[in-house]
Amino acid sequence: MRKTTLISIALAALTSLAGPVTAQSGRFSPAITVNDSVITQYELEQRMLFLRILRAPGDVAEEARKGLIDDRLRAGAAEAAGITLSAEQVAAGMAEFAGRANLDTEQFVAAIGQGGVAPETFRDFVSAGLAWREAVRARFLPRIVIGEADIDRALSVTAQRGSGPRVLLSEIILPLTPDTAADTRDLAEELTGSVGSAAAFANAARAYSAAPSRDEGGQLGWIPLTNLPPQLRQIVVQMGNGQVSPPVPLGNAIAILRLNGIEQGGEIDPRNVTVDYAQYLIPGGRTEATLAEAARVRGEVDTCDDLYRAARHAPPENILRETRPLPQVPGDIAAELARLDDNESSVALTRGNALVYLMLCRRSATLAAGSLPAADIPVVSGLVDPDGPPRINPELGFGGGPTRAQIREELVGQRLAGLADGYLAELRAEANIVTP
CA–CA separation, 267 vs 172, rounded Å? Predict the structure, then answer.
């Protein structure tokens, strides 16, 4: 697998810098004191080298100084909160960070070592971030409440969910269970080293993936980059066309992606909008009786799911619910839906001898081009061959857009980040920071 990373771009220049910098005398002398903790000149030099390898923007010397000061404040806050990290947590954090560069930990450490960065520098950098994350979650997480309305807003076209860069991907999603976790991780590692070509990736997807895209060899249409969990976005944006990602744990699954294309995107293109809408056909045309029935239903429903209960006495064929790309929606319905917000309704249309109670369930721009929503994808009920591919799980994969659980997690992360920034600012204001 090709491993073109930011690291390889910067190593040649950095290797020549490593000797003179680390040879300076007094490199272990105190450079900064943060409360009772000392930052040495060596640590500053190491952080500068590390930031250059990562091609961090801004003044590297200033960013190294600020970063180390903040790390000391973060570590102090974690210690005060009783947060301690296990060796396994640190190792997992290092592996996750290295994975963003499409490397494992050993490869990453070897690569930065060529630029003069010690393994301990990488370890301490990751440990400070992990301890801070745990301290922030312990302090603030109980205060955060994410409601269903918050999730609805975050998923909406109005909130520009679906705008920005779009990626063309193929996916292999390996389901995880406690009984198969070790074997699945071994399989994921094996696959990443053997599925570099499009054909090999497609064959592996058909054989091993549990996502609905399996039947298409794992291929997805164009999707917004924001369909992907944050940990995968960071990896994908550093990949080149035809490159395969490392295995990425996603809780109940492991994902492997192949990047087939990327476009910068921008505002949401109407052709990328999908509408989920429902129709209740009320026999009798437009009369006082049918309008009264529509008014009754409107008073009893808040969402499209309520429509089935409110119209439970109607024949099943009189209640229709569809999800279609906007260009495929009949013109009169599309025009009426354009006037509605999510969960609003209209009785402006008739069909034959029926009044149409039309309801917009959801307007979305997150579905993969050419895909169906998860609810429309049949689930394989079992395996004919016990050694064959796993049962398809419609909730896995990225073609259907982010799930509500993923959005909830994303919103919690955003709120925690804001609270963490404020907390760190307080710690800076209260700290005794001395530069000799």
Answer: 29
Portion of the chain with pLDDT greater than 90, in percent: 54
**pLDDT confidence tier of residue 368, bands split at 50, 70 and 90:** confident
Q: CA-CA distances (angstroms) from residue 324 to 214, 339, 369?
A: 22, 17, 11
Q: Which string of b and e fits 398-415 if b means at least 16 CB within 10 Å? A: bbbbbeeebbbbbbbeeb
Is residue 11 scored above 90 in pLDDT? no
Rounded-to-integer distance, Cα 169 and Cα 224, Å:
11
Among residues 84, 69, 74, the alpha carbon closest in space to that of 32 is found at 69
Domains and CATH numbers, the chain: 6-143+416-434 (1.10.4030.10), 162-269 (3.10.50.40), 274-364 (3.10.50.40)
Q: What is the dihedral of CA 250, 255, 259, 264, to 10 degrees?
A: -20
Cα within 13 Å of Cα(206), Cβ side: 9
Q: What are phi and psi of 24, to 5 degrees?
A: -65, 145
Q: Among 79-93, 295-309, 329-343, 363-377, whose mean pLDDT is lowest? A: 363-377
Contacts of 83-90 with C-beta under 8 Å, sequence gap 24+, read 83/131, 83/134, 83/135, 83/138, 85/127, 85/130, 85/131, 85/134, 89/130, 90/123, 90/126, 90/127, 90/130
CA angle 342, 347, 351 (to 5 degrees): 115
Q: How far is 241 from 120, CA to CA, in rounded Å?
A: 33
For the segment 218-245, what is each residue's pLDDT rounded down to a tens digit?
999 888 998 888 888 888 988 899 999 9
Pairwise CA distance, residues 101 & 123, whole Å: 16
Both structure tokens of 151: 């999730």
